[in-house]
Amino acid sequence: MSSPNPSPPPTIPVLGPGHNYASITDKISDIVLQFRAPIRWFLGFVVGFTLLQGLLLAIYMLLFKGVGVWGINIPVGWGFDIINFVWWIGIGHAGTLISAILLLFRQQWRTSINRAAEAMTLFAVACALLFPIFHTGRPWLAAYWLLPYPNTMGVWPQFRSPLIWDVFAVSTYGTVSALFWFTGLIPDLATMRDRARTRVGQVIYGALALGWRGSARHWQIYETAYLILAGLSTPLVLSVHTVVSFDFAVSLLPGWHATIFPPYFVAGAIYSGFAMVLTLLIPMRSIYGLQDMITLRHLENMAKIMLVTGLIVFYGYMMEAFFAWYSANEFEKYMIYNRTTGPYWYMYWTLIFCNGFVPQLLWFKRIRLNVGILFLISIIVNIGMWLERYVIIVTSLHRDFLPSSWGMYQGSRYDWSFYLGTMGLFLTLFYLFIRVLPMIAMFEMRMLLPGGGNTPKDSH
Amino acid sequence: MRDIDLSAIRARLAKQDGTGQTGPAFWRSLDEVAETPEFAAMLHREFPEGASEFTDPAGRRDFLRLMGASIALAGAAACTRQPTEHIVPYVKAPEDLVPGKPLFFATAMPFAGTAVPVLVESHMGRPTKIEPNPEHPFTHGGTDLFAQASVLELYDPDRSQTVMGKGEIRPWSELSLALTSAGAGQKGAGGGGLRILSGAVTSPTLAAQIQGLLTAMPQAKWIQYEAIGNDNARAGSKLAFGDYLEPVYRLDQADVILSLDADLLDAGAGKLRYARDFATRRQVVPGQTAMNRLYVAESSPSNTGSKSDHRLSLKAREIPALAGAIAAGLGVAGAAGQAPASATAFATEVVKDLQAHRGRALVVAGERQPAAVHALAHAMNAALGSVGTTVVYTQTPQANPGEGFAGLRDLVNEMNAGTVAVLVILGANPVFTAPSDLKFASAMGKVPLSVHLGLHRDETAAHSQWHVPETHYLETWSDARTGDGTVTVCQPLIEPMYECRSAHELVAALSGEIKTPLEIVQGFWKANWDGRSASAGAGGAFGKLTDTTGVDFATFEKFWRRVLHDGFVPGTAFAPKPVALAAGAVAAAPAAAAVSPASSGVVPNSSDTSVGGLEVTFHADPSVYDGRFANNGWLQELPKPFDKVCWDNVAYISPRTAEQLGVGERKPVVYGVEVYLANLTVNGHTLQVPLWIMPGQPDGSIALHLGYGRTHAGRIGNGLGYNANFFRYSSTPWVLQGASLTLLDQIYNVACTQGHFQMENRALIRVGTRTQFEHDPTFAQHMAHVPKPDESMYAPWKYEGHAWGMAIDLNSCNGCNACVVACVAENNIPVVGKLQVMKGREMHWLRIDRYWEGSPDAPSVHFQPVACQQCENAPCEVVCPVGATVHSDEGLNDMVYNRCVGTRYCSHNCPYKVRRFNFLLYADWDTPTLKMQRNPDVTVRSRGVMEKCTYCVQRINTARQQAKIEDRKIKDGEIVTACEAACPTQAIVFGDLNDKNSRVAKAHADPRSYGLLAELNTRPRTTYLAAVRNPNTALTPEPAGPATGGHH
């Protein structure tokens, strides 16, 4: 197939050969409407659902006894809670990036993966949102006191606090991502409505399709709305993790107080987001035989983005160390000394291994095209990014200014139960998603067909 | 039941008819008539068969069903209306009682042969807080940590509540009768079988009572025993002067002080006064830098050692030789000794320095040293011409001082011999505290009648036939003497909470008298106040008492009201006694001091993990003393000054000894600090102890702390730590030789609030020498670059009214911990327990940071109390998302508990880490007695909120209200924070920085003043005054570089 991009023509197409309109629609919609769920779907769902029970237990214990069931203390008052929050929010970034920025840049290869990536974004944000609420000492109050609502006491949130900026940033991000995802689903929901065999399916898909008939006017409005939402989402990709990084950068703690944090966090977010997309899509394309639609081209492109963002992140690590030395500030110097040689040295060096060295393998095309190794690298990067937040939060807090107050931290069983529980929530939602919604945008895939009438790349 | 043969019955009835009996023949049942064995059995039983034995399964079920129903009905019946309770105002309000306004009463806490004069804050009849009595002529204010914690002891839910006789609850009348009859029985025998055992008693009334008893029963004996007593000091004074005398030091007069293993500033009867006097002689201002100099040679780190200018770690057995050498150098006749090799320079310089300050020099010996060393110290003071200037001798405050360990040993021998018929134990716990060789518990089994009076049903109570709950000192009348002999009449703040009796009542009961404590105490003073009575006896003749201005009291009523109001009886301090050194006093000394230093080497055993030839020294626990405070949660959770360990005692060994043992550096782990366990073996007995590497501990010496390993302390104190009494023998109660340690391959987790003890070259505690200070008084301000207030983008906020601030003088603080407990008591700070402390969740708003400086073998130690610094640019405030921590217009960093949602971000942004978080529900909302202790002016925090020091904002507001009512400004010194009040050294000053004449404003203007971490531009409202040491340049070459604690 031909590509409008000035870049060298890709050797691997974004859609396998031999497809026509009907085959694409059948292939994707049948997963939901025709096939019984494969046994591997059930296995995955059961794993997710079981882990989800751990989340419920952890929340129950937390509400019943207090945040003391976690491993946090003074000085390390944030542990798994904020580590996981930042991790999940970061993971969410790939979806928006794929949907919005690649759309604006006319990267047609995004088409087959954007739906799943957006869903992943939404579910990751949902998981992330649990932590800011439940990490507080009194979640029942935090849930609404952090929102600016008019009340008779005239009390408002404290707008200088980065945590309040977080509330706005993350809630905006969640809202726009949900809208974007839903808007993109409407034409496909109409397809599902038309193909659904049960009355229930017809009613539900029909209601969600909002009366889509596929008229030219509908398409025109849809395209405009989708572009506007893409435009809105694009700055969010950059702003959300910038604001999240302010939680740290605005404080005066050595290891947090760094101007490099916003770009370094955004790059890290995209890095981990793409790693998570790979972690999810590589098994999914094999379970459902979607190798034609999620091709090696997609995987390779994502690997390239991981390589770029991984290099930015690694540059961030090096700059942290450089400025610790260059600042001649004893607290900063000790911070990096403690990270590299202190009680959590193994965390730091594992992080450097995962995020600094392993991604260098992606320079090699053969590795980029090897699905198994790519999957392994994506898992390693996910672990590395979790460790990065662990290192930033725990090793900065546990030894700060006054040596008298230094302490140690370790997650408790409820920390783990909560963390694995959010993975359960994520998996549960994701498995439900692929069971009830088309996981690949059918109408956009149809546009990729060579004879596809309106050539999508030019009309957008 | 068996079938009844009716025909046989008829036959019997007919037979009766025929026997000529008169009157009708009654029968109760056919069985009776049949004369069945069953009926005969039934007549013998109380209840019919089947009623008391549920042998029939069906019947049992029925019974249970019935019972269940009746219980259910009983429950239903309980759903009646509550009795009407009327809330009415007082018809006749008690005088001065204004709800919401606390009252203060003067009294004193009797404690181990001394007393701490205090004012007690009382809210609506509930004593809630101990404050010092600043008018007391001896202490002039300041309290210790035990006095601060004693209010919790009053409300301890584990306190003994009922009289127990042989394990059962008994009425007091029964015991009273038993005591009276025992007393009467003994009277016949002259009291030959009566023994009274008490702690050191300073109460003139109790002494007179017991003396009266002993007069009536001359064969009876009264033994006073303190586990941490002063036998050696007393024996030393007897050796030196031929009489029991108490040295009273005048540290304000002393220019050079030598302490021989004496914790002058934090132990003993005079510690509050000495700490205060010592601190006043360490105040330096530019141009006036006269300072005293303190030399300390000691066997384990002490608070006094931390304040020294020169500290020498010596094994306890090496100190007599050092004392002998110094005494010889001073020309004390008969003294001789060869100072240990490591101490020769020290000894030479000390001699020079002492001699250069004749009449202004002082030598003090500690209780751990034998009597000979005390005698040497007295002789040295005499040789230095210091008697009368830096030290005076008085009679001992302890009434009728006995022989301590020897007396107890005699008592045990008598008990074992069966000659003790009645043993009355007044407030002591000898089964736990007595040296282990005496086997006090088994001896108690041989006493026919033993009565124990105590606050708790402790180990001794468990071995006594009778146990009587003792009244807490806040519940009863009594009297007590402070270190200088000044008497305080102790008055109750509250009715006894339980069926308690005081020692006065128990002794009265022995004499056959039933009197209230008020009658007894008041009766004593009625007889003694105007010097008319000749019956003063053992209490000491007081002569005619006058008030502080020398005017006679007109009536007893006036006298009584005055002494209760003031908290002391004026004119009862002992007059100095003229002393003359007994001939040959020192001749005995060299013998004791002749322990060869050569024999003190550590013997490494063949195995790598054990060393022998160790010395063991015993120490009072800094928190629970001899174990009497073991059930006090505030004290258990109090980090000890040097190891910062709480909820445990550990065994100190020096870094070098640890190396020999192969013990690595202890490492902070997630749950507290991991330490190694080791077997300590002496004379074939072995005890498992957790090893703690303590810098400054002498090599080859191991320090054990008493007071742990309690089994009957209560729910808090049981089962914590190891019992060091196991190795304590009545012949060697303080120092034991020939111990060996074997390292075990076992780890023990200790709760420690400060696992890291190096300053990491940060200018946190700033210390200079006197020379440095003279050269540049502002040396401390050059150790870090502090941004100026006008370097900010914003104009500084103008504080129109008050601007509260604090200054803490590191030169004065000796790390005694009184402020920490005072803060806990004032601010309703919860106790969280060992596990939570191990997890790093202690709640103390005020902590004392401790850092070592110098080599681990001979370090100096520094203390720094750290609470919220109330920064002007508070980093915590900007990051709180809900505005729960905000700045007041007086510069306070206020915490709004109601608004806090608990994100903990403020704590992360606090560089001082002084914020504390309620991770769980730490406050006790259930125990009724603990509720009574709470300060009603301070919120009891719930789960999930942050808390921290408020500068005692409740006290600021009380003063503000008072000033407003009186239409005046708040005066300097009117607001005294809890920590400031408790501090015996006046290290903490609080006040208004806008008032340029206030003490705190002057302290902030002091050239030594610096802000902790002020280089972060937090602009703390609390500043520290750098410590200035006064080293002898002959011993320490003056450092060429800048003062320690950081770099420019």
Structure description:
The complex is a heterodimer of chains A (460) and B (1048). Chain A has 460 residues and is mostly helical. Chain A is 70% helix and 0% strand. Chain A has helices spanning 21-33, 39-65, 80-104, 111-134, 139-145, 162-195, 199-208, 216-249, 261-287, 296-326, 330-341, 345-357, 365-368, 371-398, 413-436, 442-447, 456-459. The radius of gyration of chain A is 23 Å and the shape is globular. Chain B has 32 helices and 39 strands. In chain B, the strands form eleven sheets. In chain B, strands 19, 20, 21, 22, 23, 24, 25, 26 and 27 form a nine-stranded mixed beta sheet that branches. Chain B has a seven-stranded mixed beta sheet with strand order 5-4-16-15-14-6-7, with helices on both faces. In chain B, strand 19 (603-604) and strand 20 (610-619) form a beta hairpin. Chain B starts with 5 loop residues before the first helix and ends in a 19-residue tail after the last strand. At the A-B interface, helix 5, helix 6 and helix 11 of A face strand 23, strand 30, helix 27, helix 28 and strand 34 of B.
Number of strands of chain B: 39
Helix count from the secondary structure assignment of chain A: 17
Mean pLDDT of chain B: 86
Inertia-based shape of chain B: globular
The largest inter-chain interface, given as chain pair and residues per side, is: A-B, 55 and 57 residues
| Low-confidence blocks of residues of chain B | 18-24, 46-55, 535-540, 589-607
Main sheet characteristics of chain A: none
Shape of chain A: globular
List segments of chain A where confidence is low: pLDDT < 50 over at least 5 consecutive residues. 1-6, 453-460
SS-based class of chain A: mainly alpha
- The percent range for helix content of chain B is 25-40%
Q: What is the CA-based Rg of chain A, rounded?
A: 23 Å
Structural class of chain B: alpha/beta
User: What oligomeric state is this?
Assistant: heterodimer
Distance between the termini of chain B: 106 Å
- Helices of chain B, by number, come to 32
Number of strands of chain A: 0
> How big a fraction of the residues of chain B is strand?
15-25%
